[in-house]
Design brief:
The complex is a heterodimer. By secondary structure, chain A is α+β, with helices and mostly antiparallel strands. Chain A has eight helices and six strands. In chain B, strand 9 (297-299) and strand 10 form a beta hairpin. Chain B is built from 30 helices and 23 strands. The longest helix of chain B is centred in the last third of the chain and has 24 residues, at 636-659. Chain B has four domains: 3-282, TIM Barrel; 298-565, Dihydropteroate synthase-like (TIM Barrel, Alpha-Beta Barrel), CATH 3.20.20.20; 576-658, Methionine synthase domain (Methyltransferase, Methionine Synthase (B12-binding Domains), Chain A, domain 1); 669-786, 3-Layer(aba) Sandwich (Rossmann fold). Classes of the chains: A alpha+beta, B alpha/beta.
Chain lengths: 212, 787
């Protein structure tokens, strides 16, 4: 990872479609440099026939998401512990930098997932892919996190664990389910409908999208 | 047969993979090897028997996942799981003298600070497994596949404190030469050998061809027998097949024997065939024992500081003579202490002294809290500084690395109490040259005490390299003649005892004007006389500079690399932007100019009343940025940047008021907390920053805060506004419970709630008084409630 999607990061910082001034841009550049130096992106995935997926895919939302899929991909990705540490340290001395780093790290982990998707796509070139659906979205329960990570052997392979509240640690991490299907999926990337935040989302209030 | 006898063999052989062998026999994906002890004990026995037949001297019972966290939901207790595994192992080893190890793998949850599991919980979890192993007849303990040295420490202490069994520790490294958590090889070696493991090594993650660098470094940093237990190369992502076969594996392993490795085995993908090939390949070779020359060094989990040249110990984490620091300790303001730590590291400290002694507080609890918090934000090694042995021990226990203990002295009681602790936890120690009779006047007498301390340390098995002698700085204004005696003693200790020396430098100038000048000169004199570890204020540029300049002049800093890196481009000319009349406080706040803000505040304080600065300048400037934020003219990072400037201004005011013994300015107390179960705290921290900058005293209870703690603190501190944050739908329940408990206890306070998953309606439903949509609004609420 050499460059982060700045527009995306600015959205996370609340800029919407506005641009930061020059001074702020320089500060964001500095933070991006620090974050890229600290990030140790890693991902792992496994592909199963839909009826043989060892993780129980409970809930109607995930069922709908995978409706036409033949196979399911379980993936997990993380930026590693150093990125967390960088943000934690910034929170003590320079909260503004922590806010910026946090947004950049959120952008970065999505890019890591994008890279994972590219790799998955290469191995399954004759399939289409659904978008990433994570535990905790809609009624897909977050308490499968531990089982999910175990199936992927994620603690050992990429150093990713969940704590007893099912929160992923290191913090800038993602687990997600992707469906592989033979026909092109409907462009249902209107993620808001399946998002828990749809009632309160600050992006939506401004008529924007978080990019999900 | 026991492990010690086994070590008399030329080489010792372990087993190979268990999980991959079980998969071969039909274990399904998603199943844990541990389940096979009950579902297919015949497989487990068969695999272990094959390893024994192949020539393994030690086999691990199938207990890698037998801890209570990983067993959750299986219906088996740790005791049951371990017993099942040992039933298999004993059957397999029947009639042989093969040793059986209780195999201890990672817990499966990350420890603090990256995760949320505490060190104490980790210790308990490991203790349970290891004691079960002992009860089932384990011959030794194997702690393996670890990526976090803190987790290893918990397991190793659990083994040492609850059994007499030999302990072998292996960690898992990436190609970068570090583990996932950033642990380096020297850090691993210093901690594991320090606490007293019987063998140390690497396993899993990579093939034998990729671990030479790591193992070479390890051999250079340890005197323990070294273990290598690699994978059979890397697995094919599609088929899971490993790419190094038994013959290749054995070929690679021969080189480790030449390098000085004593104990060999295989991990994932290796089978009995690999062990057979390995034993055959090493047949006829001799153990290439190498005596490592380990430099004097201390270490955090990631950063090792060798004391082969002067290193700066930062002295600022110490309440002595510091009003604000004392206040911070009394108010549990850990962030203040962390700020002091970060400043010192930026200024050039190599090691930080940590002293939190204050009569009014529980020093032991505070030491533990502060060390845990410090190791979450700074990477430099720490020096645990207390006069109370229990405090030192508590600090040693939770420190994630090899620290320095400050201090032991020549008194019998001190030697007998402190040195065993230093040995047990594998620390280094500062030895003060004083005893029952006080501080001797003459250098020779101090030397004699130093010698006694070094000898006594050796009796306890503490390496000479781990004792740093402090010849004691006396105050020049009171005992002028003593200054040269101290320096003479430093020189004697350094030359005749050959140990490292340490001195608290700043004490020299107490009571004199222009202290910096005296400190600076004394430091240079001491360095020339052989001082290795000056304890100084690194934030004073001339002090840190003196050490750097000394290293350059003494030909330690070769080609002046460190010096130039720190000072090239440095100009003593005043910075152009900071011309006095250029800017106002309001301008500094609006533009995020922290240093200017602090400077202007300092200047204003000479003529303007502090409250006038706050109410007439700071607050209006903040209000302006606040309303610009609300109207979308500026955005969150700018708002917070301005808040940071205001904070710097407040700090200047607070420091002045503290100096004049005035009570600190406060508009009232606010509790902020991220509720139980939730660890998302950046939002809460943003709220904290903003509230503080409006002059409120914020009691930050942190994240994952139990309901009762919120209630107790609100009552004890008589707090009128409580702010609760939750970021997950799953933790909203904890928020509701906290509010309920506050109401049940009739705590006279208002409650505001915030967080991405909340709505104003939901906030009302769970009984909150206010819903705060962002940090700015929390300030508006505080104004409403507290004025």
């Amino acid at each position: 990872m050499h460059k982060l999607n700045r527009a995306e990061a600015l959205r996370y910082m609340g800029y919407g479609n506005n641009l930061p001034d020059e001074k702020m841009s320089l500060l964001i550049d500095k933070c991006e440099e620090q974050l890229l130096a600290a990030a140790e992106p890693k991902f792992v995935f496994a592909v199963f026939d839909k009826d043989k997926c060892p993780v129980s895919l409970k809930g109607k939302d995930i069922a709908e998401h995978l409706e036409k899929s033949e196979k399911v991909v379980l993936m997990a990705a993380t930026l590693g512990a150093k990125a967390d540490r960088l943000i934690r340290t910034a929170e003590i001395k320079e909260m503004a930098e922590a806010v910026i780093l946090d947004a950049l790290a959120s952008t970065a982990i999505e890019q890591v997932c994008d890279n994972a998707e590219k790799e998955i796509h290469q191995s399954f070139a004759d399939y289409f892919m659904t978008w990433r659906f994570s535990p905790g979205y809609g009624d897909f329960p977050i308490d499968i996190q531990g089982e999910f990570l175990k199936v992927l052997d994620a603690p050992k392979k990429i150093g990713l664990c969940a704590n007893s509240s099912n929160i992923l640690t290191p913090r800038k991490s993602v687990t997600a389910v992707i469906g592989l299907l033979k026909e092109k999926p409907e462009q249902k990337k209107s993620g808001c409908q399946s998002c828990n935040l749809k009632g309160t989302c600050q992006f939506r209030q401004k008529g924007e999208r978080c990019g999900f | 047969m026991d492990f010690k006898t086994l070590l008399k063999k030329e080489f010792v052989f372990l087993d190979g993979g268990m999980g991959t062998e079980l998969q071969k026999r039909g274990m399904e994906a998603g199943k844990s090897s541990e389940e096979m002890n009950s579902e297919h004990p015949e497989w487990v026995i068969d695999i272990m028997k094959s390893y024994i037949n192949a020539g393994s001297d030690i086999v691990s019972a199938n207990t890698f996942s037998s801890n209570r966290i990983k067993l959750e939901g299986t219906g088996r207790t740790v005791e049951q799981s371990v017993k099942l595994a040992f039933d298999c192992a004993k059957k397999a080893a029947e009639g042989t003298d093969t040793l059986i190890a209780i195999d201890v793998g990672p817990i499966g949850q990350l420890l603090e600070p990256t995760g949320t599991l505490t060190f104490e919980e980790a210790y308990d979890i490991f203790k349970e497994v290891i004691v079960a192993g002992k009860n089932n007849g384990a011959d030794l303990v194997v702690i393996e596949t670890m990526t976090d040295i803190y987790e290893v420490k918990a397991a190793l202490l659990a083994a040492k404190e609850n059994t007499d069994l030999p302990v072998l520790c292996y960690m898992t490294f990436e190609k970068s030469g570090r583990t996932f958590t950033g642990c380096s090889v020297p850090a691993m070696a210093l901690v594991i050998e320090g606490i007293g493991a019987d063998a140390i090594g690497v396993n899993c993650s990579l093939g034998p061809n990729d671990l030479y660098g790591v193992v070479e470094e390890l051999i250079a940093w340890t005197d323990l027998p070294v273990v290598v237990k690699p994978n059979a190369g890397l697995p094919d992502p599609a088929t899971g097949a490993y790419d190094i076969d038994a013959e290749m594996f054995a070929g690679y392993m021969k080189k480790y024997a030449e390098m000085g490795v004593k104990i060999f085995g295989g991990c994932c993908g290796t089978s009995p065939e690999y062990i057979k090939a390995l034993i055959k390949a090493l047949d006829g070779m001799e153990y290439a024992e190498i005596e490592a020359i380990i430099p004097p060094a201390v270490s955090s989990y990631a950063v090792t500081v060798d004391i082969t040249q002067p290193r700066i110990i930062g002295e600022r984490i110490n309440p002595t003579g510091k009003k604000l620091f004392k206040e911070a300790l009394k108010n549990n303001d850990i962030d203040y202490i962390l700020g002091q730590a970060i400043d010192q590291v930026h200024a050039g400290a190599d090691i930080l002294d940590v002293n939190v002694g204050l009569p009014e507080i529980n020093e032991k609890e505070m030491m533990v809290r502060v060390i845990k918090a410090l190791q979450g934000v700074v990477d430099v090694p720490l020096q645990i500084d207390s006069t109370i042995p229990e405090v030192i021990e508590a600090g040693l226990r939770v420190y994630n690395g090899k620290p320095i203990v400050n201090s032991v002295n020549g008194e019998e009681k001190s030697l007998n109490t402190i040195l065993p602790m230093v040995k047990k936890y594998g620390a280094a120690v500062v030895g003060l040259t004083l005893d029952e009779n006080g501080i001797p006047k003459k250098a020779e007498e101090r030397f004699a005490i130093a010698e006694r301390i070094v000898n006594r340390a050796a009796e306890y098995g503490i390496r000479r390299e781990d004792v740093y002698i402090d010849c004691l700085t006396l105050t020049a204004s009171a005992e002028q003649a003593a200054v040269m005696e101290t320096l003479k003693a430093v020189k004697m200790v350094k030359e005749r005892l050959g140990v490292k020396t340490v001195l608290g430098v700043s004490n020299i100038s107490f009571g004199l004007p222009n202290r910096e000048l005296v400190n600076h000169n004394f430091l240079t004199m001491a360095l020339t006389n052989g001082l290795d570890l000056p304890i100084i204020n690194p934030n004073v540029a001339s002090m840190t500079g003196a050490v750097r300049a000394y290293k350059l002049l003494a030909n330690i800093d070769k080609n002046s690399v460190e010096y130039i890196a720190n000072y090239s481009g440095d100009s003593t000319a005043p910075k152009a932007a900071a011309v006095k009349s250029d800017i106002t406080l309001e301008y500094a706040i609006a533009n995020g100019l922290k240093n200017d803000g602090a400077r202007i505040t300092g200047e204003m304080l000479q003529t303007v009343d502090p409250m006038e600065i706050i109410n007439g300048h700071l607050i209006p400037a903040l209000d302006k940025t606040g309303s610009e934020f609300e109207t979308g003219k500026i955005f969150l990072p700018q708002l917070i940047l301005s808040a940071g400037v205001a904070q710097a201004c407040f700090d200047v005011i607070k420091a002045k008021l503290a100096k004049e013994n005035n009570t600190p300015v406060s508009k009232g107390k606010v509790i902020v907390a991220t509720v139980k179960g939730d660890i998302h705290d950046i939002g809460k921290n943003i709220v904290k920053t903003l509230l503080e900058n409006y002059g409120y005293t914020v009691i930050d209870l942190g994240k994952d805060v139990p309901e009762q703690v919120v209630v107790d603190t609100a009552i004890k501190e008589n707090v009128k506004l409580v702010g609760l944050s939750a970021l997950m739908t799953t933790t909203l329940k904890a928020m509701e419970d906290t509010i309920k408990l506050l109401r049940e206890n009739k705590v006279d306070c208002k409650i505001m709630v915030g967080g991405a998953v909340l709505t104003p309606e939901y906030a009302g439903k769970i009984g909150a008084d206010f819903y705060s949509k962002d940090a700015k609004e929390s300030v508006d609420i505080a104004k409403k409630v507290l004025g």
